[in-house]
């Protein structure tokens, strides 16, 4: 890990202030959030964060690489794309992002017409709610056409971009229906009964999944 090369921050001998020197710049923690579910291309990150210019995104990613938080990975042909991924050090910020999400949720309210929404942000919100489970489950969540893999069982959950090769449960629907379940406390079974969500797989698998995240089955 490289040392901080530019000390324009708080100049305090304190771990909190030093951390803010590294991740306290605008957009940095949002980039961490957007990389929690897997690697993203430069264009993907830019499209997900309106208001972030290409030059500023490039600068932030270079700073994060210099601090050992992010690394580049080149995909082989025919994809021929470069992904930005969190390093193990960068992944140590996951509980920080989760804690900020819990703290900020009390002022969140309902989205306004100016608020951007994103299925990946909902999945990050879901992952931070994991309370543990002794029943291993593998599910695919399809949100507005995007697929995510969820694996539960044990003290930690896996939630990443992309569909699993095999899932015992598939839950599909628009983001607003997943938000009603994850954020607003609606019952998953009720949403399925109303047609707001579509379930493929046993009802018990949905119950186990909901309980693993402290949500209403």
UniProtKB/TrEMBL annotation:
Pfam family, any one: HxlR
Keyword check for Transcription: yes
UniProt domain HTH hxlR-type: residue ranges: 14-112
SUPFAM superfamilies linked: Winged helix' DNA-binding domain
Gene3D superfamilies in UniProt: Winged helix-like DNA-binding domain superfamily/Winged helix DNA-binding domain
Molecular-function GO terms, alphabetical: DNA binding
Presence of keyword Transcription regulation: yes
The protein's name in its UniProt record: Transcriptional regulator, HxlR family
Organism: Nannocystis exedens
Annotated keywords: DNA-binding, Transcription, Transcription regulation
């Amino acid at each position: 890990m490289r040392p901080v090369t530019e000390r324009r921050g708080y100049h305090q001998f304190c771990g909190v202030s030093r951390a803010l020197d590294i991740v306290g710049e605008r957009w940095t923690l949002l980039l961490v959030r957007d990389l929690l579910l897997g690697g993203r291309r430069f264009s993907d990150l830019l499209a997900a964060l309106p208001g972030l210019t290409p030059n500023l995104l490039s600068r932030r990613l270079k700073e994060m690489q210099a601090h050992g938080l992010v690394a580049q990975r080149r995909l082989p042909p025919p994809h021929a794309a470069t992904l930005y991924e969190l390093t193990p050090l960068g992944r140590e910020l996951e509980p920080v992002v989760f804690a900020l999400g819990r703290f900020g949720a009390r002022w969140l309210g309902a989205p306004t017409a100016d608020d951007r929404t994103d299925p990946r942000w909902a999945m990050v919100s879901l992952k931070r709610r994991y309370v543990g489970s002794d029943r291993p489950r593998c599910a695919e969540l399809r949100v507005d056409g995007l697929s995510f893999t969820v694996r539960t069982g044990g003290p930690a959950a896996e939630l990443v971009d992309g569909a699993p090769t095999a899932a015992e449960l598939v839950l599909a629907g628009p983001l607003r229906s997943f938000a009603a379940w994850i954020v607003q406390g609606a019952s998953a079974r009720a949403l399925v009964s109303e047609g707001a969500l579509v379930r493929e797989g046993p009802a018990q698998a949905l119950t186990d999944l909901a309980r693993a995240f402290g949500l209403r089955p």
